[in-house]
Amino acid sequence: xxxxxxxxxxxxxxxxxxxxxxxxxxxxxxxxxxxxxxxxxxxxxxxxxxxxxxxxxxxxxxxxxxxxxxxxxxxxxxxxxxxxxxxxxxxxxxxxxxxxxxxxxxxxxxxxxxxxxxxxxxxxxxxxxxxxxxxxxxxxxxxxxxxxxx
Length: 150
Prior knowledge:
This protein is mainly α. It has one domain: Orthogonal Bundle (Hypothetical protein af1432), CATH 1.10.3210. About 65% of the residues lie in helices and about 0% in strands. It contains 9 helices and no strands. Helix 1 runs parallel beside helix 3. The longest helix has 15 residues. It is globular.
C-alpha cells in the first residue's frame, strides 16, 4: 500500500470525529477540485498536494487551532510511516496555505501546491453568494477562476 492509500485509510476514521461539514466528503470535494485545477498546470507535486489535502482539516475540534492540530496529526503519521523529512515539511507548508488567517499572518503561498489547496478549499463553497463575494477575489489562480465561472 502506498503512502496516499495509507493516509486515506487513516484519515477516513479520523474525519468521523469532526463536525458535519469537515467530514471525509469535504476532503473528496477539495481533492476533486484540486485535481481539476492541477491538470491545467505544470510541475505539480501530486503526492504532497494529495497528502496536504487529506490532512488539512483532520483535527477540526476548534477553528482557531485546527491548522496546527491537523499539521501535528499529519507530521506524526508521516514520520511513523518513514516519509522523508523534507517532504513532510513541504506537506506542512501546503497545509498552512489553505488557511486564510495563516495567509494574513505569514503572507502569500510560495508553493504552487499551496495555491492549489487554498483555491480548491475555497472554491468548492462558492455556490454561496456571500462566500463567493468574499473569496473570489482572493483566489490565486486564473485556472480556478475559470472553473468557478462555469
